[in-house]
Amino acid sequence: MTRSIHDQFAKKCLTELLAPLGEVKSGFKITAEVREADLLFLRNPNATKNVPEIGLLGKLAATSALFEPFRNPVNPKQIRSCLGKLFDTHAKLEREAKGEKKTIAEPDVIRLWILSPTVSTELLGSCGATAGGKNWREGVYFLPKVLKTGIIAIDQLPRTPETLWLRILGRGKVQQQAIRELKSLQGEGALHNNVLELVYEMLAILEAREKQNLDVEAQELIMELSTIYLERLKNATEEGIQRGIQRGIQQGKQESKARERRASIESLLRIRFGTIDEPLSRIIEPIIALSPEEFTPLLLQLSREELLARFLTTDKTIVTEKNC
Predict the structure, then answer these.
(1) Is 187 inside any structural domain?
(2) 207: β partners
(3) Which strands form 65-69's sheet, in the order they lie side by side?
(4) Number of folded domains in the chain?
């Protein structure tokens, strides 16, 4: 259960980071037997936006690639499965190119990147993987050249801004440290904030399932993310007021943002309570008036009864005032 949560987080995070560089396909079906690659990335040769911003991940995305992130350490069987997906993808893309009377040059042949929280020396040796050398960071290994495959040992990556976007896909202390670094960058750009929202979404899902038998690592991650939420709420008060003033001045330009907020609120309500019934649907409109920094912690921390008591009362007051 916890693994699937982190798998979804990894796919969403990679999609957010890679989308400016090309086409991203999650759950890409490869053969008639319905083999699925976690993420197919098709590089846009004209894309330059955000390449420096995502560091080492941007270097991995210099060519089209399959990305296979693992929550637990990858094992030999999984490596063979990933290679099978890669070869099937090669064959599929070659057939499509042939149908369009095109050829795929060797430098453009799609690559495979296996992202693992840790990798043993024994496993690397058994598949003939060697370190990337001076042109690559520690933790990057390559299988024999003809296989077009690299393995990233996330726990071996140096703790630098360049590796942040990969370390956040790790586990345990490595992931928690990366999340703290990401939080410190909040406000430095849309990409940082969007990925941070995905982190908070993961927290919401974990908290919604907290009563289930989560492992110790998942419980520690909940504590780490909850601490970040509380810090964010404390530091956002004045900023939220200023943003509220600006939103009032620019009200005519905020329709698309309102739609995005509604979608976020509905998503969090479904995560917390399963469905949105009539009473919950009535509190969405007053909640939209709040900034994401204000309403996200409330939706995560307040019970259903507390939310209804707080926002239905507000809603009734507004209705009464309008009638007067």
Answers:
(1) no
(2) none
(3) 22-29, 36-43, 65-69, 111-116, 149-153, 140-142, 130-131
(4) 2
Q: Is 240 left (phi over 0), alpha (psi -120 to 50) or beta?
A: alpha
Better-predicted residue by pLDDT, 141 or 31:
141
Question: Residue written as tokens 């990366």?
Answer: 178
Res. 194 pLDDT band, cuts 50 70 90: confident
> 39 and 136 share a domain?
yes
Distance CA 231, CA 233 (A): 5
Distance CA 108, CA 90 (A): 11
Who has greater pLDDT, 268 or 138?
Answer: 138
Residues 163 and 259 in one domain: no
Q: By residue range, what is the domain housing residue 145?
A: 2-169
Within a domain: 86 = yes
Least confident of 53-57, 79-83, 219-223: 219-223
- Nearest to residue 268, comparing CAs of 245, 299, 301, 292? 299
Query: Which helix (H) or strand (E) covers residue 43, if one does?
Result: strand 36-43
At residue 221, the pLDDT reads 57
Comparing CA positions, the residue from 324, 294, 267 lying closest to residue 311 is 294
Residue 107 has pLDDT above 80, yes or no: yes
**Is 214 inside any structural domain?**
no
Q: Record the pTM.
A: 0.62
Q: Confirm if 224 and 177 have CB atoms less than 8 A apart.
A: no
In a domain, 222, yes or no: no
Q: Which of 107, 138, 169 marks a domain boundary?
A: 169
**Pick from 147, 169, 191: which residue ends a domain?**
169
